[in-house]
Write a structure and sequence with these properties.
extended; 20 helices; mainly alpha; about 425 residues
């Protein structure tokens, strides 16, 4: 049994599709512009002969696609949908999914494909009793959106949102919510278009403002509803907050971001805290409030680029404990190799230690932080390779690291087996 035969085996799915109706879209539908291929076999009346024919056709499609012969694949694809006439439910649904995904892939690469070809296959598969109607509709809308047909994309999503088939399942409910979210995103796109095209004289004109307000309200209904469904909704949340900020609904925007970041029903999402921090910073929030947000982000992603800002805020604090926290934050950034050659991070570490030296027990604090790193930190940052590379490519970084060597690695001169750079960094 080849891979394509396995695709025709029944799949377990949460949605029960008992619709075995005929593919009505094949009757009276638009005829494809691609040429018909001569059937591989002659007229076959036996069912097993029909399946052998379609199996052979499927194999030819696969072979053509593997070698990027898209015109040839398209010719065979015109013939293959005849398998939809097969009344065997054992192969019906997998065949429909194969046609959907394969045809769209061929059209994507075919040099002469048109929007009409895409629309034809999407509409045919949506109305063939296929259990993935909602996801096909969503993909169809994406394709229309790529071709700047925003209103058509929105119309298809609206139609899909009202679609129901059989007993409503959890999967259908989830897909409908996803479609509603993308409807809101399309309203946001139209809202942005209206905002960018209006002239300065239109600002106070009621008609222009009313049109934007209408799209804002339509988008808000769907985008606001997202927070009722735990998940990662970054692109939707950002667009919703952008519109709320534009209309100076700051209280609502802050509530949305707080819920997205701190609601325990949502999965941990570092981006949620980044968005909240960026919003608070734009609104001129206090340093204490900003540090509170960054503290949570630090626990999730200690290597995040915003940890530079976090360490800066801690460094500006008058509390001695905050200076110690800043030391830990910067050292944890340098625990990750991606920051090893970053001059700003090493200069921040130097600034933290310089301020820390005002404390009586600063040496013990540094030794305690470095004790857990003594077995691997030297090899990560202070080898002869690093010394040579830094001295040639970034002399300033070399000087900063050299000035910190005796503080961070007091036993460096004695550890010549692990390190051979003791003389350059002395």
């Amino acid at each position: 049994m080849d891979d394509f035969d396995r695709e025709l085996e029944p799949h377990t799915d949460l949605e029960n599709d008992s619709d075995s109706s005929e593919d009505n879209s094949s009757k009276g539908g638009k005829k494809s512009k691609f040429p018909l291929v001569k059937p591989i076999y002659g007229d076959q009346t036996q069912q097993n002969g029909f399946r052998r024919t379609t199996s052979m056709c499927r194999e030819r499609i696969r072979e053509a696609m593997l070698h990027h012969r898209w015109e040839e694949a398209a010719e065979y694809m015109v013939y293959y949908p005849q398998i939809l006439e097969d009344r065997n439910l054992f192969t019906a649904q997998p065949s429909k999914e194969f046609i959907w995904r394969t045809a769209t892939e061929i059209f994507h690469h075919h040099p002469n494909s048109t929007m009409e070809d895409y629309n034809t296959i999407y509409e045919r598969m949506k109305h063939s009793g296929f259990r993935h109607y909602l996801m096909i509709s969503l993909e169809h809308s994406f394709h229309l959106l790529l071709h700047q047909q925003i209103e058509d994309a929105k119309r298809h999503l609206a139609s899909a949102e009202s679609w129901r088939h059989g007993k409503e399942t959890a999967a259908q409910i989830q897909n409908i919510k996803l479609i509603q979210a993308y409807r809101g995103l399309l309203d946001y796109i139209i809202w942005c278009d209206k905002k960018s095209t209006r002239s300065s004289s239109d600002y106070y004109e009621s008609d222009s403002n009313q049109t934007m307000q209408n799209y804002f309200r339509q988008a808000s209904v769907n985008l606001e509803d997202i927070l009722k469904n735990p998940g990662v909704w970054d692109c939707f949340i950002l667009r919703y907050v952008e519109m709320l900020e534009f209309y100076e609904h700051h209280k609502e925007a802050l509530q949305v971001l707080n819920d997205y970041a701190y609601d325990s029903n949502f999965p941990p999402n570092p981006n949620a805290h980044v968005y909240l921090y960026q919003y608070l910073k734009r609104q001129g929030a206090s340093e204490k409030r900003l540090m509170k947000v960054l503290k949570v982000l630090h626990a999730l992603v200690p290597s995040h680029e915003l940890m530079l800002e976090y360490s800066s805020l801690l460094l500006q604090s008058e509390k001695q404990s905050d200076t110690q926290k800043a030391l830990g934050v910067v050292l944890e950034m340098l625990d990750f190799n991606c920051w090893g050659s970053n001059l700003e991070v090493w200069m921040r570490l130097k600034a933290v230690i310089q301020k820390l030296q005002n404390q009586v027990d600063w040496e013990n604090i540094v030794c305690e932080k470095m004790a857990e790193r003594k077995d691997w930190w030297l090899a990560l940052h202070f080898t002869s390779f690093h010394a040579t590379k830094d001295s040639k490519e970034n002399p300033e970084l070399f000087e900063v690291k050299a000035s910190l060597t005796k503080i961070l690695c007091p036993d460096l001169n004695q550890d010549t087996d692990k390190l051979s750079i003791h003389s350059p960094f002395q």
